[in-house]
Design brief:
Elements: E1 2-8, E2 20-26, E3 56-57, E4 60-61, H1 112-116, H2 151-180, E5 182-184, E6 200-207, H3 215-221, E7 231-239, E8 244-248, E9 254-257, E10 260-261, E11 267-268, E12 271-274, H4 275-295, E13 301-305, H5 307-316, E14 320-324, E15 328-330, E16 335-337, E17 340-344, H6 346-354, H7 363-381, H8 384-387, H9 390-402, E18 404-407, H10 412-426, E19 430-434, E20 437-444, E21 447-452, H11 454-466
Parallel strand pairs: 5-18, 6-13, 8-19
Antiparallel strand pairs: 1-2, 3-4, 6-7, 7-8, 9-12, 10-11, 13-18, 14-17, 15-16, 20-21
Helix pairs in contact: 5-6, 5-9, 6-7, 7-10
Length: about 475
């Protein structure tokens, strides 16, 4: 005879719920494991025995059995089964129980809470989960939550898009700006031309060309109405490994203008004249040839800017900052500036670099103003406030580059190198000098001129050629 326990979900004839824990006794040879009338613990005759329930004798189990998962325990999550010995060594088939609550009666027999928390305390173990093992995302999340992009992928894509945008804008801006440059065949080879030396030599000139200026603008800027063009400023910028040097050449320097052929094919012999005349006769090409002939230097690059471009560039930059040690008033140039530090607009800047009548040394004093101005202009043009502000950068490039004339070999990177070199000179990474002068009032058939001190000047020129330290001489 065998006695078994089990949960009976039965009902009485009158409809009362008589479910409960049942003890059944089976006699040898009897099927079904029930003897009518021999139930205890709330069992009734004729009720079938729950399969899979452990046998017990009296009130103790015959053998310990693992507890049901909390989600299947009919007494609710957190309840444990009473240990006890199992008698007879028989193990019944385990039947999953429906969890009471909102999910009771579902076709799949699973509480929604259990479905949502499968694999967690209080939910179905992974091996019983009908959806299979693996992590579960939130309701409607599509599995592990990877239905959308991860944060890392979004960051990577954003950075890639930003880099691509900057690259496209940068390339487009470069092509646009390069198209604004006016190139000219200024540097030409000829017999006897000095060979290229070490470092890089730029010839930077300011032209007084009135091209593009109306009569009203010429009057407002005090440029005069003369036709043609002359050079108001002339400098050689040497960029080398021993520091950069900006050397001014007085426009009245008395030099030899080598033989040349004009636009009509007429040949002209070499002659003595002011260096300014070379530009008036044959523009940039003859000026370059004259400087190379008299200095022995090889000019690598050429840059020229006229009056109108000069004014527009300064205004587009929002002005430049200069500190003056004295007030300047000059009717010829239109300068009317107070002493001290101040911001100058385009018209004021042009008057400043052209003023000479108030200076005791005339053109020599004006060259110092020009050097001071170029340093301030380069500093403003290469500042982060300009380079990172498209509302300043693009108008400046548009006005400046369109009125700038350079040799055929100059690109935007070369031009940027020139401006940064000028900025370095002002920042103490170089020096500014003037061609050594022997006589500032040298009498010539062409009028008062400037005579170079060739002994000292040759030392400066040699330093440029060999890219060595430039010597200094007392003024």
């Amino acid at each position: 005879m065998t006695t078994r326990d089990g949960w009976d979900e039965g009902s009485a004839a009158d409809g009362r719920d008589i479910s409960g824990w049942e003890t059944r006794t089976t006699r040898p040879g009897e099927p079904g494991g029930r003897v009518p009338g021999r139930a205890s613990g709330g069992a009734y005759p004729g009720l079938p025995q729950m399969p899979g329930t452990p046998e017990r004798h009296g009130s103790a189990y015959s053998q310990a059995e693992p507890p049901l998962p909390p989600g299947l325990n009919p007494r609710g999550p957190g309840a444990t089964r009473r240990p006890g010995p199992q008698q007879g060594g028989q193990q019944g088939r385990q039947v999953p129980q429906q969890s009471a609550g909102p999910g009771y009666g579902r076709a799949d027999g699973l509480n929604p809470t259990v479905r949502e928390n499968a694999g967690t305390p209080g939910g179905l173990p992974p091996e019983l989960d009908p959806r299979g093992p693996g992590p579960r995302g939130p309701r409607g999340g599509g599995g592990s939550g990877r239905s959308g992009w991860s944060r890392r992928r979004k960051v990577r894509f954003t950075l890639f898009a930003l880099v691509l945008t900057l690259l496209v804008v940068g390339v487009g801006s470069y092509v646009w700006a390069d198209s604004k440059l006016n190139h000219a065949n200024v540097l030409t080879d000829y017999a006897g031309r000095p060979p290229a030396g070490k470092g890089t030599n730029w010839l930077v000139i300011g032209s007084d060309s009135r091209q593009g200026l109306s009569k009203a603008q010429q009057q407002a800027l005090h440029t005069g109405y003369a036709a043609g063009s002359r050079t108001d400023s002339m400098m050689i910028l040497h960029i080398g490994s021993n520091g950069n040097t900006l050397m001014s050449i007085p426009r009245d320097s008395y030099v030899t203008i080598p033989a040349w052929t004009d636009s009509k094919g007429i040949k002209h012999n070499a002659s003595k004249n002011k260096i300014n005349a070379a530009y008036a006769y044959g523009d940039g090409p003859l000026l370059v040839k004259t400087i190379e002939f008299n200095t022995g230097l090889h000019i690598d690059h050429y840059a020229e800017i006229g009056f109108s471009g000069f004014v527009n560039v300064v205004d587009d930059l929002g002005g430049i900052h200069l500190c003056l040690d004295k007030a300047i008033v000059d009717k010829a140039s239109g300068a009317n500036l107070k002493a001290g530090c101040q911001d100058l607009n385009g018209t004021q800047s042009l008057a400043f670099v052209r003023e000479r009548h108030q200076e005791a040394s005339q053109d020599l004093g004006r060259m110092k103003h020009q050097q001071q101005f170029l340093a301030a202009l380069s500093h403003k043009a290469t500042s982060m406030g300009t380079l990172l502000n498209p509302f300043v950068l693009y108008p400046t490039l548009d006005s400046g580059l369109s009125l700038l004339t350079v040799d055929n070999n100059v690109g935007l990177t070369d031009l940027a190198s020139m401006f940064f070199a000028m900025k370095g000179v002002q920042g103490g990474k170089g020096k500014t000098i003037t061609v050594p002068i022997a006589d500032a009032n040298y009498q010539t058939p062409a009028g008062d001129a400037v005579k170079w001190n060739m002994t000292e000047a040759t030392q400066v020129f040699d330093a440029f050629k060999n890219d060595t330290a430039v010597p200094s001489f007392p003024s």
